[in-house]
Here is the input.
Amino acid sequence: DAKTTQPNSMESNEEEPVHLPCNHSTISGTDYIHWYRQLPSQGPEYVIHGLTSNVNNRMASLAIAEDRKSSTLILHRATLRDAAVYYCILRDLYSGAGSYQLTFGKGTKLSVIP
Amino acid sequence: KAGVTQTPRYLIKTRGQQVTLSCSPISGHRSVSWYQQTPGQGLQFLFEYFSETQRNKGNFPGRFSGRQFSNSRSEMNVSTLELGDSALYLCASKAQETQYFGPGTRLLVL
Here is the structure.
Protein backbone atom coordinates (compact mmCIF):
# COMPACT_ATOMS: atom_id res chain seq x y z
CA ASP A 1 0.00 0.00 0.00
CA ALA A 2 1.17 3.52 -0.78
CA LYS A 3 2.54 5.60 2.06
CA THR A 4 0.75 8.53 3.70
CA THR A 5 2.23 11.44 5.65
CA GLN A 6 0.34 13.21 8.41
CA PRO A 7 1.34 15.77 11.05
CA ASN A 8 1.99 14.17 14.41
CA SER A 9 -0.39 16.43 16.27
CA MET A 10 -2.84 19.29 15.86
CA GLU A 11 -4.91 21.44 18.16
CA SER A 12 -8.31 22.96 17.65
CA ASN A 13 -10.65 25.08 19.70
CA GLU A 14 -14.01 23.59 20.48
CA GLU A 15 -16.79 24.47 18.01
CA GLU A 16 -14.32 25.56 15.34
CA PRO A 17 -13.65 23.72 12.06
CA VAL A 18 -10.66 21.41 11.84
CA HIS A 19 -8.74 20.57 8.70
CA LEU A 20 -6.59 17.45 9.01
CA PRO A 21 -4.15 17.10 6.09
CA CYS A 22 -2.75 13.93 4.54
CA ASN A 23 -0.13 13.68 1.82
CA HIS A 24 -0.01 10.63 -0.41
CA SER A 25 2.16 11.62 -3.33
CA THR A 26 2.65 8.03 -4.57
CA ILE A 27 -1.05 7.19 -4.65
CA SER A 28 -2.15 4.98 -7.53
CA GLY A 29 -5.28 5.38 -9.57
CA THR A 30 -6.99 2.48 -7.79
CA ASP A 31 -6.26 3.53 -4.21
CA TYR A 32 -9.18 4.47 -2.00
CA ILE A 33 -8.46 7.10 0.66
CA HIS A 34 -9.80 6.03 4.04
CA TRP A 35 -9.94 7.89 7.32
CA TYR A 36 -10.35 6.21 10.66
CA ARG A 37 -10.05 7.65 14.13
CA GLN A 38 -9.29 6.12 17.47
CA LEU A 39 -10.63 7.67 20.63
CA PRO A 40 -8.76 6.97 23.87
CA SER A 41 -9.22 3.41 25.10
CA GLN A 42 -11.35 2.40 22.11
CA GLY A 43 -10.91 0.56 18.85
CA PRO A 44 -10.58 2.54 15.62
CA GLU A 45 -13.75 3.97 14.14
CA TYR A 46 -14.49 4.48 10.45
CA VAL A 47 -14.89 8.14 9.52
CA ILE A 48 -15.09 8.45 5.75
CA HIS A 49 -13.55 7.27 2.50
CA GLY A 50 -13.35 8.42 -1.10
CA LEU A 51 -11.73 7.74 -4.44
CA THR A 52 -11.70 10.89 -6.56
CA SER A 53 -14.59 13.18 -5.64
CA ASN A 54 -15.13 15.05 -2.40
CA VAL A 55 -17.34 13.16 0.04
CA ASN A 56 -19.60 14.22 2.88
CA ASN A 57 -21.24 12.23 5.64
CA ARG A 58 -22.70 12.98 9.03
CA MET A 59 -19.30 12.85 10.71
CA ALA A 60 -17.03 14.76 8.35
CA SER A 61 -16.13 15.84 4.85
CA LEU A 62 -13.26 14.57 2.74
CA ALA A 63 -11.67 16.94 0.27
CA ILE A 64 -9.45 15.26 -2.31
CA ALA A 65 -6.98 17.27 -4.36
CA GLU A 66 -7.44 17.20 -8.11
CA ASP A 67 -4.18 15.27 -8.61
CA ARG A 68 -5.11 12.99 -5.65
CA LYS A 69 -1.70 13.49 -4.09
CA SER A 70 -3.23 14.93 -0.93
CA SER A 71 -6.51 15.00 0.93
CA THR A 72 -8.02 16.83 3.87
CA LEU A 73 -10.43 15.55 6.46
CA ILE A 74 -12.71 18.34 7.60
CA LEU A 75 -14.55 18.29 10.90
CA HIS A 76 -17.01 21.14 10.58
CA ARG A 77 -17.37 21.89 14.27
CA ALA A 78 -14.96 20.21 16.65
CA THR A 79 -16.30 18.89 19.91
CA LEU A 80 -14.44 17.45 22.86
CA ARG A 81 -15.52 14.02 21.69
CA ASP A 82 -13.53 14.52 18.48
CA ALA A 83 -10.24 14.39 20.40
CA ALA A 84 -8.63 11.28 18.94
CA VAL A 85 -5.86 9.95 16.72
CA TYR A 86 -6.87 10.30 13.07
CA TYR A 87 -5.45 7.87 10.54
CA CYS A 88 -5.31 8.44 6.79
CA ILE A 89 -4.98 5.10 4.99
CA LEU A 90 -4.75 4.10 1.34
CA ARG A 91 -6.43 0.91 0.21
CA ASP A 92 -5.94 -0.59 -3.24
CA LEU A 93 -9.31 -1.22 -4.83
CA TYR A 94 -7.99 -4.29 -6.61
CA SER A 95 -6.07 -5.90 -3.76
CA GLY A 96 -6.79 -9.57 -3.20
CA ALA A 97 -10.34 -10.44 -4.36
CA GLY A 98 -12.19 -8.54 -1.67
CA SER A 99 -9.59 -9.19 0.97
CA TYR A 100 -7.57 -6.27 2.18
CA GLN A 101 -5.84 -5.10 5.27
CA LEU A 102 -5.63 -1.59 6.63
CA THR A 103 -2.06 -0.37 7.01
CA PHE A 104 -2.10 2.19 9.81
CA GLY A 105 0.60 4.82 10.16
CA LYS A 106 1.11 6.90 13.26
CA GLY A 107 -1.77 9.25 12.49
CA THR A 108 -2.46 12.76 13.77
CA LYS A 109 -3.34 13.25 17.40
CA LEU A 110 -6.04 15.90 17.55
CA SER A 111 -6.51 17.82 20.78
CA VAL A 112 -9.65 19.89 21.24
CA ILE A 113 -9.42 22.84 23.60
CA PRO A 114 -12.60 23.79 25.48
CA LYS B 1 -27.36 -3.92 15.07
CA ALA B 2 -25.04 -4.81 17.88
CA GLY B 3 -21.41 -3.90 17.29
CA VAL B 4 -18.35 -6.09 17.26
CA THR B 5 -17.80 -7.73 20.61
CA GLN B 6 -14.58 -9.11 22.01
CA THR B 7 -13.98 -11.26 25.05
CA PRO B 8 -12.34 -11.08 27.42
CA ARG B 9 -11.64 -7.36 27.65
CA TYR B 10 -8.60 -7.77 29.87
CA LEU B 11 -6.27 -10.67 30.41
CA ILE B 12 -3.08 -11.29 32.37
CA LYS B 13 -0.88 -14.24 31.47
CA THR B 14 2.67 -15.31 32.18
CA ARG B 15 5.42 -16.07 29.73
CA GLY B 16 5.14 -19.47 28.09
CA GLN B 17 1.39 -19.75 28.53
CA GLN B 18 -1.06 -19.67 25.67
CA VAL B 19 -4.14 -17.51 25.25
CA THR B 20 -7.32 -17.57 23.18
CA LEU B 21 -9.24 -14.41 22.35
CA SER B 22 -12.74 -14.32 20.92
CA CYS B 23 -14.47 -11.97 18.51
CA SER B 24 -18.11 -11.85 17.44
CA PRO B 25 -18.64 -9.78 14.29
CA ILE B 26 -21.64 -7.68 13.43
CA SER B 27 -24.53 -9.88 12.38
CA GLY B 28 -24.32 -10.65 8.68
CA HIS B 29 -20.63 -9.79 8.35
CA ARG B 30 -18.57 -12.72 7.10
CA SER B 31 -15.11 -11.16 7.21
CA VAL B 32 -13.16 -10.84 10.45
CA SER B 33 -9.70 -9.28 10.70
CA TRP B 34 -7.37 -9.19 13.67
CA TYR B 35 -4.89 -6.43 14.52
CA GLN B 36 -2.29 -5.97 17.23
CA GLN B 37 -1.67 -2.52 18.70
CA THR B 38 1.43 -1.70 20.73
CA PRO B 39 2.94 1.68 21.65
CA GLY B 40 6.07 0.90 19.69
CA GLN B 41 4.71 -0.67 16.50
CA GLY B 42 1.26 0.89 16.34
CA LEU B 43 -1.57 -1.00 14.71
CA GLN B 44 -0.43 -4.05 12.74
CA PHE B 45 -2.50 -6.50 10.73
CA LEU B 46 -2.44 -10.11 11.92
CA PHE B 47 -4.84 -12.00 9.64
CA GLU B 48 -8.25 -12.01 8.01
CA TYR B 49 -10.84 -14.77 7.90
CA PHE B 50 -13.74 -15.06 5.50
CA SER B 51 -16.20 -17.96 5.44
CA GLU B 52 -14.02 -19.99 7.80
CA THR B 53 -10.90 -19.59 5.60
CA GLN B 54 -7.86 -17.48 6.25
CA ARG B 55 -7.42 -15.33 3.16
CA ASN B 56 -4.81 -12.83 4.23
CA LYS B 57 -1.99 -12.92 6.75
CA GLY B 58 0.36 -10.32 8.18
CA ASN B 59 3.98 -10.69 9.13
CA PHE B 60 3.70 -12.42 12.49
CA PRO B 61 5.30 -15.65 13.72
CA GLY B 62 3.47 -18.96 13.63
CA ARG B 63 2.71 -18.65 17.35
CA PHE B 64 -0.17 -16.44 16.26
CA SER B 65 -3.04 -18.37 14.75
CA GLY B 66 -6.72 -18.02 14.29
CA ARG B 67 -9.87 -19.65 13.10
CA GLN B 68 -13.39 -18.76 12.16
CA PHE B 69 -16.54 -20.71 12.83
CA SER B 70 -19.58 -21.21 10.64
CA ASN B 71 -21.43 -18.43 12.49
CA SER B 72 -18.55 -16.06 11.57
CA ARG B 73 -17.30 -15.79 15.15
CA SER B 74 -13.54 -15.88 15.25
CA GLU B 75 -10.86 -16.80 17.73
CA MET B 76 -7.19 -16.02 17.76
CA ASN B 77 -4.64 -17.98 19.69
CA VAL B 78 -1.17 -17.06 20.81
CA SER B 79 1.00 -19.90 22.02
CA THR B 80 4.18 -19.69 24.10
CA LEU B 81 3.54 -16.11 25.13
CA GLU B 82 6.42 -13.64 25.22
CA LEU B 83 6.64 -10.35 27.07
CA GLY B 84 6.47 -8.55 23.73
CA ASP B 85 3.03 -9.99 23.06
CA SER B 86 1.58 -7.56 25.59
CA ALA B 87 -0.73 -5.47 23.46
CA LEU B 88 -4.25 -4.46 22.61
CA TYR B 89 -5.72 -7.04 20.23
CA LEU B 90 -8.45 -5.69 18.02
CA CYS B 91 -10.80 -7.47 15.72
CA ALA B 92 -12.84 -5.90 12.97
CA SER B 93 -15.69 -7.09 10.82
CA LYS B 94 -16.05 -5.72 7.36
CA ALA B 95 -18.84 -4.65 5.07
CA GLN B 96 -17.66 -3.47 1.67
CA GLU B 97 -15.29 -0.55 2.26
CA THR B 98 -15.85 -0.16 5.99
CA GLN B 99 -14.23 -2.02 8.85
CA TYR B 100 -15.98 -1.98 12.20
CA PHE B 101 -13.66 -2.49 15.13
CA GLY B 102 -14.40 -3.98 18.50
CA PRO B 103 -13.18 -2.48 21.77
CA GLY B 104 -10.22 -4.84 21.91
CA THR B 105 -8.74 -7.27 24.39
CA ARG B 106 -5.87 -5.88 26.43
CA LEU B 107 -3.34 -8.64 27.08
CA LEU B 108 -0.59 -8.25 29.63
CA VAL B 109 2.16 -10.87 29.68
CA LEU B 110 4.21 -11.03 32.87
User: Anything to note?
Assistant: The mean pLDDT of chain A is 92. The interface with chain B takes residues 32, 34, 36, 42-46, 49, 87, 91, 96-106 of chain A (CB under 8 Å). Chain A is about 0% helix and 45% strand.
